[in-house]
Write a structure and sequence with these properties.
Elements (H helix, E strand, L loop, with lengths): L7 H14 L8 E2 L1 H8 L3 H13 L3 E3 L6 E3 L4 H23 L3 H20 L3 H4 L2
Antiparallel strand pairs: 1-3, 2-3
């Protein structure tokens, strides 16, 4: 296994992303450069880089009037868009795997079984290892 070198900004992006995805920062919550810099103990230029990354990913939204940042809220249109894209991706996946034989599909079948077991247990598969 190789050790992955990460910049401070990459580490901060991962931390802030995890806080958003785990709802420790909730949709609509205001996020400021000052508070992030203070809480993470990093410089404001680093925080700006981190926030810009999360804006591009769609996890943060900048209010065009006040220029403040907040955790993105999904509306019905956004949720519908996610499901529409998911449907397209899943259909493309089915077409791509449709021509493969059973041996080639074994890794996919194993991954599906792991996900199904995690769903039954209501735990993420990676949380069960160990």
């Amino acid at each position: 296994m190789r050790i992955r070198r990460e910049t401070v900004a990459e580490q901060c992006v991962q931390l802030l992303r995890r806080q958003i995805l785990e709802w420790r920062l909730v949709p609509g919550e205001v996020v400021t450069e000052e508070s992030i810099a203070r809480d993470m103990g990093v410089s404001r230029p680093t925080v700006r880089e981190v926030l810009n990354t999360l804006i591009v990913e769609g996890l943060l939204t900048r209010n065009p009037t006040t220029r403040s940042l907040c955790v993105t809220r999904l509306d019905c249109g956004g949720i519908n868009e996610i499901y529409r894209v998911r449907r397209l991706l899943e259909a493309a996946g089915v077409r791509a795997f449709g021509a493969l034989d059973d041996v080639a599909l074994q890794p996919l079948a194993a991954a599906t079984a792991t996900l199904a077991a995690g769903r039954r247990d209501r735990r993420h598969p990676r949380d069960r290892a160990g």
